[in-house]
Amino acid sequence: MSVAKEVQLIIFDVDGVLTDGGLYVDDDGTPMKKFHVRDGLGIKLAQSAGLKIAVLTGKVSEVVHHRMNELGIEHFIQGSKDKGTDVHALEAMAGVPLEQTAYVGDDLIDLPAFSKVGYPIAVADAVAEVKDAAMFVTHARGGQGAAREAIEHILKAQGKWDAVVARFAG
Ligand SMILES: [Mg+2]
Questions:
Q1: Total number of domains in the chain
Q2: In angstroms, how far is the first alpha carbon of the chain from the final one?
Q3: Domain span including residue 8
Q4: Does residue 67 lie in a domain region?
Q5: What CA–CA distance (Å, rounded) separates 90 from 131?
Q6: CA dihedral in degrees (66, 55, 90, 123; nearest 10)?
Q7: How far is the CA of 166 from the centre of ligand 1 (A)?
Q8: Which residues sit with Cβ closer than 5 angstroms to ligand 1, an ion?
């Protein structure tokens, strides 16, 4: 049995988790996405506290590549056709067993990954089946701080959150 306390790797879905699921497309067909700045800081804080972060998305876009680089996320897979298989690839890339891995998702395509990881997390506005399969459901919706909340939840369970906050309190 795995709990938040044992998580060493957090894998995030992109659309509907790091974004609100909206897909902006410009006149040239280039997709644009809106990320939440507090999720970004949360990811940086998690990394500084020793957690590994990965991203797994079914779509492919330059904008995701840019955001991953900006956040220093080395382990990410775009264009995933089967998330249940690709979590094993991320397991190998990050060097953390899936039993010690959290996966944050919002839709049915995430369920194969949910069944592989030790700590599945759903965002507040995930579909019912995903929320039912999750061990933790955030209060925040996808793209509106859900990733930050998931990170905070895990760091608190590990007793690391106060030290993170203390760095900013001066
Ligand atoms: Mg999604």
A1: 1
A2: 38
A3: 4-162
A4: yes
A5: 23
A6: 180
A7: 33
A8: 13, 15-16, 106-107
In a domain, 121, yes or no: yes
Please report the DSSP string for the chain in residue order.
Answer: ---GGG--EEEE-STTTTS-S--EE-TTS-EE----HHHHHHHHHHHHTT-EEEEE-SS--HHHHHHHHHHT--EEE-S-S-HHHHHHHHHHHHT--GGGEEEEE-SGGGHHHHTTSSEEEE-TTS-HHHHHH-SEE-SSPTTTTHHHHHHHHHHHHTT-HHHHHHHHH-
Q: Does residue 168 lie within any of the structural domains?
A: no
CATH number at residue 94: 3.40.50.1000
pLDDT, one tens digit per residue, over 2-43 is: 589 999 999 999 999 999 999 999 999 998 999 999 999 999
pTM (two decimals): 0.96
Distance of CA 121 from the midpoint of ligand 1 (Å): 12
